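Example record for the data management plan.
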Amino acid sequence: MVQAYLVFTTNYFPWLSIIVIFPISAGFLIFFLPHRGNKVTRWYTLCICSLELLLTAYAFSYHFQLDDPLIQLVEDYKWIRFFQFDWRLGIDGLSLGPVLLTGFITTLATLAAWPLTRNSRLFYFLMLAMYSGQIGPFSSRDLLLFFIMWELELIPVYFLLSLWGGRKRLYSATKFLLYTAGSSVFLLIGVLGIGLYGSNEPTLNLEISAHQSYPAALEIIFYIGFLIAFAVKSPILPLHTWLPDTHGEAHYSTCMLLAGILLKMGAYGLVRINVELLPHAHSMLSPSLIIVGAIQIVYAASTSLGQRNLKKRIAYSSVSHMGFIIIGIASITNTGLDGAILQIISHGFIGAALFFLAGTSYDRIRLLSFEEMGGMAIALPKVFTMFSILSMASLALPGMSGFVAELIVFFGIITSQKFLLMSKILITFIMAVGMILTPIYSLSMLRQMFYGYRLFNTLTPTFFDSGPRELFVSISILLPVIGIGIYPDFFLSLSFDRVEFIVSNFFYR
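Corresponding structural encoding:
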């Protein structure tokens, strides 16, 4: 008993393996639950998600040292000896936040999906499978395992889109699969290229690969291949066109997972592989990446303003905000990279919240077109209040997480030693234009939805405001958004030491 207690309370306990495997393993038991509608299934799924989140929080609170920039909670088990493929897991300051974000958003997305009754067993199983598939890449320390986990979450997303989407769900699901599966070919080629380079035996360990040197031309080829794979998932222009169609047709609980977590996997991959494994190519190509990021901010914000569909407008706003992450990553400064990581967390909360509120609005009025909306504030004051507050967070209102994250990215590009003064002024000006466009489309969205009298004249007594469940989900997401905005140091401390380690060891040696 004493030995079991010591194993459980030390770093030798396989925390990460349990965290990765537990959701999908528990998901298989859904099909053996008694047939009593969807009540048992949804309560079971919510309990599994909550237990997983609590387990993750406990493991990180008691067994992760914030001031240690190295990989922690490391697990390394031989899996397929034929080509040196190991089950290798570990986390650091970069992956800590995204893993916790995944647990938090998935738990709330499960609660948000309670009105859904059709094929509920399969739906909740796919949600739990996606849970494991999204935690996997954030905790993988083996390149091939990273690729497998990257691919694992594509299957649940495809079925969630094709079975519970809108009228064009098959088109959007097929488009999503073609884009993401096609880009994964570049990821696989890059993984095998790095693993097989310069050695008779494959070297898939991320720690070893991080200290591997390559010829300049080959490193650039690897970098571009990985960039294509991560650009689709992030998304980065011009590989973003799947996103509006997918968000426009997906159920809003699926949209919460896509906007809150899936998009962040691409940004995480850029940092974990392109920046950490291929620093010389990143240093050479970062000016081009910053130009793309600046253009993306303005282009997506302008396109969002022209959208007549509520969910597509929010989708394009997500593309615009991802531009700040790209610029922060490409700035090659501690400040810029810290801002990019904080923006990943911040927009994970805000994007998930906006899609949830858009879905709850659709549940009541069955409309997504702005041309048919208006006057909702009178009938739905709680929805109006939460939508307004979180729209303010999206447009980077001071005191909210978006403002802090974007401000840090600004400081990152301004203080970068790699770029000339005129280049930094130009990029900063373009970013400022994007920040001006953001409140235009956000406030326009609020005006078209909640003001005026168009919808108010046709309201019936069956319309009802947010209930306790919906208010709980909204407030649960709002609290960390305000918390980050008021006290960002706590969240920055999660990744600060690791970011400093990466920048100092790989770029300014």
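Summary line stored alongside the record: The longest strand covers residues 72-80.
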